[in-house]
Amino acid sequence: MAMPLLYAHRLGRAYGPDSSAKALAGALATGADGLETDVCLTADGELVLLHDPLLSVGTTLDGWAHRRTAAEIAGAQLRDRHGEPTAQRPLTLDELLAATPIDMPLQVEVKAHADRELARRTAARICERYRGTSERRRIELISFHSVACATAAAYGFSSRLVVWADYAPDALASWAVRTGVTGISIEHFLITPELCSVFRLAGLSVTTGTVNDAELLFRVCELASPDAVCTDDPGRLRAEALRLEEASSTSTILDAEPAPAALSASAAC
Fold it and tell me: What's the fold here for domain 5-255?
C-alpha cells in the first residue's frame, strides 16, 4: 500500500483536547504530515481554533464564538473528550501558524452553525489576514459550507468542500471547477472508485477522514488512493498500518513457498 499523507485531525485529538497546544505537540512529535483544525470568527474579527461554535460544547465558556471577543475565549478552558475542563486554552490561528514549521500543510475548516453569511465572512477574514504572507502557500481552507470554499477560491486560496452525500457528483465537480475550488473531501464511508473518478477527471484532489483504524485505512486506499487522510492519531495509525502490511506480506510469502519434499511425496501416495 502506498501510504497517503496523514493529517492530524483537530491537531491530533488523541494527544490532547481538540485543537489544543497539547494536541499539536503530540502530532508534531509523532510525525504528522499535515494538520487539520477548525476555525471560528470572534466578535472582534479574530480567528480562534474551536471545533464547535457553541462554546459550552468544548470550553468552560457559554454563548456563541462570534458573539464573544478573542480575549474572552482565550480566558476559557478547553474540555476533554469526557467534558471535563483541562488546563489547555483555545488557540488562535496566528498562534498555530507561529508554532508550526513553515512547510507544514494546514487544513483550516471554517465553522459557522447554520449561517452562510458568517461562513463567508470567516473565510474572507482568513484570506484577508494571510493573502500577503508566506503562510498563504500552506493554508487550505475546507468547509461543509460551499460559500466558504467559493470565497477562498475567489481570493486565490486552495479550498476543499467536505461532502456527506454521493448525490449528483458530476454537478458538484462542475461547480467546483467553475468556482475554482481545488479539492473534495469525501467521508470514508462514502468513498468509492466511481465517485472519486468523477472528481479526479475534473482535476480535483480527493481526501478523506476521519480514519483511525489500519484495516479501514487499507480499504480506503485500495478503493480510492486518497491524496491525504485525516486521523486523530497519525503516529499510531502509521505504525499499525506498517505492521499490518508486513504481516500481510509475510503471509503471502509463506503461502507461495513450495511444500517440503517429504510432504509432497506423502501427498502423492
Answer: TIM Barrel (3.20.20)
Using alpha carbons, select from 34, 38, 29, 43 the residue that is nearest to residue 7.
34
Q: Which residue, among 6, 158, 21, has the nearest Cα to 98 in the 3D structure? A: 21
Provide the strand spans (E) within 113-214: 139-143, 158-163, 183-187, 205-209
Helix (H), strand (E) counts: the chain: 11, 9
The string of pLDDT tens digits covering residues 186-217 is 999 999 999 999 999 999 999 999 999 999 99
1 to 30, 32, 121, 241, 252: CA distances (angstroms): 20, 18, 41, 9, 14
SS3 41: strand
Q: pTM of this prediction?
A: 0.92
The domain spans of the chain are 5-255
Annotate 7-19 with b (16+ C-beta within 10 A) or e (fewer).
bbbbbbbbbbbbb
